[in-house]
Amino acid sequence: MGPSTLDRFLARDRLIVILSLLSAVAVSVAYILAGGGTGMSSLGMSMDTGPAGALIAGTPDMVSPVVWTPGYAVVIFVMWWLMMVAMMVPSASPVVLLYGALQRDQGAWPALEFLLGYLAVWAGFGVAATLIQGALSAGGLVSAMYMNLATTYLAAAVLIGAGLYQLSPLKAVCLDHCRSPVEALTRHRRTGHAAAFRMGLVHGGYCLGCCWTLMALLFVGGVMNIWWIVGIAVYVAIEKLAPGGRRVAKVTAIILIVGGLVLLAGSLSTGA
């Protein structure tokens, strides 16, 4: 195979991976904008509550226990998983493409298998988020209308907890992994059957360790609040890809902690 023919094959494989990444994000975004299978309009809810979310903005709300059927639990899981795909794949795409380049002699499949492993980790997060939302809903602690926490005490705890985690050693280790993909892929190299899938699991695990508390913030602003979804997705990309991402993480920690304390103080003063 001549150099020009090889270049065409490599370009084709890269195009397949890029189109797969774009398709995954596009389908996920469209699904969330359509309401995530819940029968509610995410755009409508976001416009009603604004960037602050229903709880913080004081938007009139409906909070009541929700009866969860197995079918409804599946709907919520799919919503969470595809929301994670829409939010996390854009910032993970450079690593997927890098892994594909390192395995370019095997075609497009290693990169796609790596992506499947990465998405499997976030499917696991989707299961956990669904179980937590179900438990909170059963206790009347989550809004049935806007899917946000029903009390400012809980919201403040999530904000403060997320801020403290931003300063933790585990966060630092996971963020360093995500920001240095070449070193990470070399250090955690896997061989043998399903090696690419297992590499995707490893990278996804570090990514989850880096971002899970940021995703928990959706319970504060509203699980399907487009303002918060886009804001967190953009922030994650900045934290992972921008030159000053490490410093941004520390500044964000202070903002989250102060925001949580202000919200808590307001709750104590009003007795809400």
Short recap of the structure:
The chain is an all-alpha fold. The protein has helices spanning 3-33, 42-49, 54-57, 70-102, 109-138, 152-166, 169-179, 181-187, 195-216, 218-221, 226-241, 245-270.
Structural features, described:
The chain has 272 residues and is mainly α. It has one domain. It contains twelve helices and no strands. The chain is globular, with a radius of gyration of 20 Å. The model has no long low-confidence stretch (mean pLDDT 88). This is DUF2182 domain-containing protein. Pfam families: PpoB2 (PF09948). InterPro entries: PpoB2-like.
Number of helices: 12
| DSSP strand content | under 5%
Order of helices and strands: HHHHHHHHHHHH
Mean pLDDT: 88
Radius of gyration using CA atoms only: 20 Å
> What would the principal axes of the Cα set say about the shape?
globular
Number of separate domains: 1
Q: Roughly how many Å apart are the termini?
A: 72 Å
Question: In this structure, how is the largest beta sheet organized?
Answer: none
The count of DSSP E runs of length 2 or more, i.e. the number of strands, is 0
Helicity, in percent?
A: over 70%
Protein structure class: mainly alpha
Which oligomeric state applies? single chain
List segments where confidence is low: pLDDT < 50 over at least 5 consecutive residues.
none
Keywords:
12 helices, 0% strand, single chain
Helix and strand topology:
Layout: H1 3-33, H2 42-49, H3 54-57, H4 70-102, H5 109-138, H6 152-166, H7 169-179, H8 181-187, H9 195-216, H10 218-221, H11 226-241, H12 245-270
